[in-house]
Amino acid sequence: MKEVYDLIIIGAGPAGLSAGLYGARAKLNVLIVEKEKSGGQIVMTEEVANYPGSIENASGPSLTARMVQQADAFGAERTLDTITEVQIDGKIKVLKGEKRNYKAKAVIIATGAKSKPIGCPGEKEFTGKGVSYCATCDADFFTDLEVFVVGGGDAAVEEAMYLTKFARKVTIIHRRDKLRAAKSIQEKAFKNPKIQFLWNAAVKEIKGDGVVQSMIVKNTITGEEKEIFADEDDGTFGIFVFIGYNPVTQLFEGILDMERGYIKTDENMKTNIPGVFAAGDCRVKSLRQVVTATSDGAIAAVEAEKYIADTFDV
After folding, report:
1. Among the options 138, 154, 281, 296, which is catalytic?
2. Using CA atoms, how far apart are residues 112 and 260, in angstroms rounded to an integer?
3. With the CA atoms of 282, 285, 286 and 287 taken in that order, what torsion angle do they form, in degrees rounded to the nearest 10?
4. Which is nearest to 169 in space by CA: 136, 197, 138?
5. pTM
6. pLDDT tens across 203-232, in order?
7. Exactly one of 6, 72, 89, 137 is catalytic; which is it?
8. Which parts of the sequence belong to the FAD/NAD(P)-binding domain (predicted)?
9. Tens digit of pLDDT for each residue in 115-168?
10. Under 8 Å CB-to-CB from 245, ≥6 apart: which residues?
């Protein structure tokens, strides 16, 4: 570990790995700090069909592995630690972790976002016991069972299609009467005989004894509520939640300018503090996809290199 790094990147998702690759390739001393495992949300995705060049049935884990390999090849260091406090308004940025403290001339925040919960009674209690936020992780547990997918966007519909490989029946629960997913994705879902739809509906409560056994669903138009029970022979069913994400930016509240929890940047990924950049799903942007995250990371690293050269007379 170096005394002062040129660049420290917080987060090892596509944005962070892209930034690490570009920073290290520019001969900066780069450290990527990740609290869990590399890849971010993409590691939970079975198929990445819309990333340019991913024509070999690329999965989230396989694409991430390539990104990690590239960043490592150019010399970016990686470490597992959780940053708990930051002092980033000075010329040298200080990041305090659970394992040790780190110093850098510039910082790129690429902390991403986490799945947004439904927020209903029983959800937390039955997470891991029927409630899931990752089809790739948990689909196998529901082989030949019935599952419900909550949401109507790209992620919800794509994961519903993936679940049909395991479950005998998949029902998409959406609070409106039409999906928000891309038309091409919708068309595939409508053609899949295993997928059904429960329109104008919202999950209000999840019940069970040890595992999910029923849930109460409310009609968003009429207000009528009904309880859906697990098949007697099954004893349980799965509930997969894909209704959006919350940015992982709490550490920077009151320090950086934000909008609804997302970090504000300009088009060059600069925040309101010199030498601090943000990239990927944690920042204010119109599209949160792998391709935009990697783009953000590349831009942030290039701009960080310029900042370091200008500020430290490199």
Report:
1. 138
2. 14
3. -50
4. 197
5. 0.78
6. 999 999 999 999 999 999 999 999 999 999
7. 137
8. 5-297
9. 899 999 999 999 989 999 888 778 989 999 999 999 999 989 999 999 999 999
10. 41, 113, 114, 115, 116, 281, 288
**Whether 104 contacts 95, CB under 8 Å:** yes
Asked if 93 and 105 count as a contact pair (C-beta separation under 8 A), the reply is yes
Site of tokens 């329109």:
199
Active site residue 134: yes
Answer for the pair 201, 220: CB distance below 8 angstroms, yes or no: yes
Per-residue confidence (pLDDT) for residue 314, from 0 to 100: 57
* 98/188 same-domain check: no
Say which of 72, 120, 134, 234 is annotated catalytic: 134
Question: Is 137 assigned a catalytic role?
Answer: yes
Q: How many domains does the chain have?
A: 2
282 part of the active site: no
Q: At 249, which CATH number?
A: 3.50.50.60
